[in-house]
Design a protein that fits this description.
This protein is an alpha/beta fold. The chain has 18 helices and 19 strands. The protein folds into 3 domains: about 5-170, VC0802-like, CATH 3.30.2130; about 180-385, HUPs (Rossmann fold, 3-Layer(aba) Sandwich), CATH 3.40.50.620; about 400-490, 3-Layer(aba) Sandwich (Oxidized Rhodanese, domain 1), CATH 3.40.250.
Length: about 500
């Protein structure tokens, strides 16, 4: 193998404890994932597979950034390889490779002999002592506890590898080795990180998105899943299914008590996901739910939801806190995309149920029409997120500072939220009701729509524009409006300055 861009790859530790046949199957799958990863990145390479190591030789120096995203690899090291006959050969080659790296710095030598035959006639400590003594004249000192440079040496039967860096890999189990499941995704931080965590445990995934916010929301979700799949799904070819549940949501609001709305919406998603998973022959569902994060995710509510699902629900983030999830989203590369796709909570009620009883909840959900849900699943669209996605343009918006004079401003939130605060002069038309009646609205006015985060307003603006309305929306939603409204308030003058101005105006002129 050439010295240039040679990578020594280490398996995750738990793979080393597998039985021989199982280990062989796992490492073969890792090798397949590596080939998929490098081929997808357009990298030419040679791959050598050994019992305890893999080696990749390539002309592309960026290959390491791709390899570190292959599940089942614990770490990797750029290395050079040399033949050896005796310990003196190893020391001579090591001195040549490490002398400049340790010059004037604290160092340690870490040596390892791999299993195999024949075994070298010396052990790892002997390598460390001999090479350490040779390097000491160039270095500041030996520091076994906190070295500035670690001289890594790995001795195989007929060759020896030298390296200084150990780059962390994705770890876990090889992609798909534990079968497949169906992941429910919303575009937010939680569902993306949950999918990644399940991948890390060797489970391949397909994805399903339940569209409540229209094309704008769907595009945000597509971007998140595309980033996940193209950066991490090596060895797999996931699909993203989009199911439009908006008609069922309208029925849900009519038949289910408001305090059950959000929980019933989750149950509706579970049931639709179960139908799709059954068709795809996937044995489990995956969600990003966390105990106690929102009202629908209290422990009683999660247990009630489980009773409506037809198969196991895997929740890898169940005990995480939000800071951990956001940090993980940064690590896996979905943070920036998820940050602009907030969770779409369309059915927030004033007094949401937090301690649902499974029997009472099941009776409430039973009022929904399963045939309608089946039709929604049958009408799904499908994408392959590892391929580049062509997304249509989203409807244009305006900033909160650009409100046109004389426009009809419409608040699409609930009446409760509207009365708590709204833009001065805005009318209240709750989102799902607006979807039913917008065609009967007077088209002569200029309309500006806003909602919590800009998703509902974007979808309705798109529909109204198709009907010929002059309509815009506020993409940044309520936070931007509140900041703009606060900025418009007149600033109160400090009392002292006001009194001084009053005294000046009272003095006689001349």
């Amino acid at each position: 193998m050439p010295d240039t861009n040679l990578f020594l790859l280490r398996f995750s530790g738990e793979i080393g404890i597998k039985a021989r046949r199982t280990r062989h199957r796992f490492t073969r799958q890792i090798a397949d994932s590596i080939e998929d990863a490098l081929a997808s990145a357009g990298v030419s390479f040679e791959l050598e597979r050994q019992w305890s190591r893999l080696f990749v030789a390539t002309e592309d120096p960026e290959a390491g950034a791709v390899l570190r995203r292959v599940f089942g690899l614990q770490s990797l090291s750029p290395a050079i390889v040399r033949p050896w006959v005796d310990l003196d050969d190893i020391v001579a080659h090591g001195l040549e490779f490490f002398a400049s790296a340790v010059a004037g710095r604290r160092f340690a030598v870490r040596a390892r002999r791999t299993s195999g035959h024949p075994q070298p006639p010396f052990d790892s400590p002997a390598i460390e002592r001999a090479l350490g003594a040779a390097l000491l004249s160039s270095a500041a000192s030996v520091d076994l506890d906190d070295p500035e440079v670690t001289a890594g040496v790995e001795v195989h039967a007929d060759r020896v590898y030298f390296f200084t860096d150990k780059i962390a890999g994705a770890g876990g189990l090889p992609m798909g080795i534990e079968g497949r499941a169906l992941a429910l995704v919303s575009g937010g931080f939680d569902s993306a990180v949950a999918a990644w965590e399940i991948w890390k445990r060797g489970v391949g995934l397909d994805f399903v998105f339940f569209n409540l916010g229209g094309r704008v929301h769907e595009q945000g979700v597509v971007r998140v899943v595309e980033r996940l799949a193209r950066d991490w799904a090596y060895g797999d070819w996931p699909r993203l299914y989009s199911v439009d549940l908006r008609p069922q949501v309208e029925t849900l609001q009519e038949k289910v008590k408001p305090r059950y709305w959000q929980l019933a919406l989750k149950a509706l998603m579970y049931q639709a996901a179960d139908l799709l998973a059954a068709e795809l022959e996937l044995p489990a569902l995956v969600t990003g739910e966390v105990i106690g994060q929102v009202s629908s995710q209290t422990l009683p509510n999660l247990l009630a939801l489980d009773s409506t699902a037809g198969r196991p629900v895997l929740r890898p983030l169940l005990t995480w806190n939000k800071e951990q999830i956001v940090a993980a989203a940064r690590t896996i590369g979905t943070y920036e995309l998820s940050a602009v796709v907030p969770e779409f909570c369309a059915l927030a009620a004033r007094h949401a149920m937090t301690k649902a009883k499974a029997d009472a909840f099941a009776r409430s959900v039973a009022t929904l029409d399963p045939a309608a849900t089946a039709r929604a699943v049958a009408g799904r669209t499908v994408r392959e997120p590892r391929l580049p996605q062509v997304l249509p343009q989203t409807p244009g918006g305006i900033t909160a500072d650009e409100m046109p004079t004389g426009a009809t401003i419409v608040d699409l939130r609930s009446a409760t939220d509207y009365h708590a605060w709204h833009w001065p002069g805005a009318l209240n038309l709750e989102y799902f009701h607006a979807l039913k009646v917008y065609r009967s609205v007077e088209p002569r006015s200029v309309y500006v729509l806003y909602c919590e985060v800009g998703l509902k307003s974007a979808h309705l603006a798109e529909l109204m524009r198709a009907e010929g309305f002059d309509v815009r929306h506020v993409p940044a939603g309520l936070p931007a409006l509140r900041r703009a409204a606060k900025a418009r308030l007149p600033r109160a003058r400090p009392v002292a300055r006001a009194r001084k101005a009053a005294r000046s105006s009272a003095r006689p002129s001349g």
